[in-house]
Specification:
15 strands, alpha/beta, 17% strand, 546 residues
Amino acid sequence: MSVLAVKKRSNIIRNNKIENKNICKKCSGELDEFFTCKSCGNNSYITAKQRILHISDKNTFKELKLDKVDISKKCNYEDKIIKAQESTNLDEAIIIGTCNIDGRKVVLGVMDSKFMMGTLSVSVGETITKAFEYATDEKLPVILFCASGGARIQEGLYSLVQMAKINAAIKKHSDKGLLYISCLTNPTMGGVTASFGLFGDINIAEKNSQIGFAGKSIIENLYNEKLDSNFQTEEYNEKNGMIDIIADRKEIRNILVDLLKMINNNEKLVKVSREEEKISDTNNNLLEILKNVRDIDRFKGKDYLINIFDKYIELKGDRISSNDSSILSGIGYIDNKSFIFNIQNKGRTLKENEDTNYGLTRPEGYRKALRISKLAEKFNIPIINIIDSAGADPSIYSEENGQAKAIADCLYTFSDLKTIIISIVVGEGSSGGALALSVCDWVGMLKHSIYTVISPEAYLKIMRKEEKVSNELLKSMRFTAQDLYEDKIIDEVIDENEDLDFNVKNIKDFILDKYDDLRKKDLQELIRNRYERIRNWDIAVRRMIK
């Protein structure tokens, strides 16, 4: 066989391997219906049209007929556009239309990375902008699947300004209280990441995706530094607070179905009847209460999350620096009603406690809780805050990263956040770290939980000369549920025992009962009453003065 024939045969084999959609390019394994390798789990290229078939209800997708602005001829690259159109059977690097997802109408846009690397052109920018304007007029949520190398360099500054144009349209869409979900796939880079890619109300990253601003090779060449293999992966972005959810390709539709249902869930809640609970005297042995509330086997925030909610989706990241696992935030159902939740969480094992920083919340935890609570305001979803923390993290790291400001922002914003807020102390509530999630419309405490300005040990060191914490000292702190109910700091004491099911039932009843009461108030009355509650927190002090 001649050298030419060998080369020709090699090219055919290579081309056939690339074009064979059933073979994984990474390990040559077989692909499933989602073009994911059955052997190594790698996601192979999927066309925009194939993605639409996987995400939308059957036969519901209708492409929006939007006027497109093509400047490829003016910018001298028309030949590349024609070649891309022929190879992908697309007009441009994105398809946008309306469809149903589990019966709910949305605007769905999908970028195709094979069309000039999915780059952001004037045409793509105008299409996305008009799609958001259409969605705003029609009051529809928007879901975009991003796959792009960034701005289309051939179009120069015309391409760059699309970033600002699209985000301005997203702002108008958001101001109407409408949902935008960004699904980031491989790759999502440059100007797309820095504009609409990471600007979703909820950001979902598909597994095996590179997500970043500057390309990895550019950074390595610029700084002469070899980057870690984890750099710009979906896990890297989740750790740095940019991603809410990482999902397998085949899971994304189901996650979208749940999110659309939870956020647009307008079904009426049936009121749950609940007997008035008697408050028992808990001041007899305060040392025992303090010991029990810190017991490693006491039910933790995650125990309540798993058992109170019928179904939930955790949302992660503060969109600034990282994700803090000492607060679990997200959206879920209780008796078919949607709630946003922020739940302080500790661990049982050493590893769990290290992961949650022993329940000491860092600035990014408060910023995450506030970010997701603002989604509750936007979509008119009630908020549940569950408190169990020995305090805010006092480390140098947290000081340098704005701990005080993060807590202050929570106090400031929650004071008139325009949705129902219910808070529950389930363990140890201490200092501003607990107060940050306590500005609300109704506060409950489990009967054996505590809520105090500072830990008893710190109180002892600062205020008293005793060598150890005593029952007398604890009594002077007035930190039990009964004390605080009498002082009008909290609104209700919730009965508890060592049975998780018993506690869960009582907490669920408390939430549903108070929600049913609070939703009868109009928004202005709700905010006015919340302010009055805050103003009256020192009523016990005024009573003492009198």
